[in-house]
Amino acid sequence: MENLKHEGSSKTPEVDFNSSGELLLKGRSIPENSIEFYKPLIEWLEAYAKSPGSTTVLSVQLEYFNTSSSKCILDVFKKLEAVSGSEISIKWHYEEDDEDMLEAGEDYDAIIDLPFEMIEVEEI
Known about the structure:
The protein is α/β, with parallel strands linked by helices.
């Protein structure tokens, strides 16, 4: 299975999904069309679910995301939730003093049945 990589831009996050189970979403997520941007990520996760790594860690290091991205991010989490045969966890990074991002991570944690680790960082 091929890895999925996207360079980040001012509007889209860096994506580095590795078939070994190390997944990264980093930067800003305010694409013109969130569904179109996140579709390849969802499709990659569907393929990954067929033969996942023994552990899967999604590291989310977003400094900001818009409302349409939030639904797509939830869809990514739901796809991960459906993966069986892998120990899955989410590492939610947020900048110190960014209460909104911490709260967003806690909201996802309440919705999704996966272990979330909240990680405070100086800067993303």
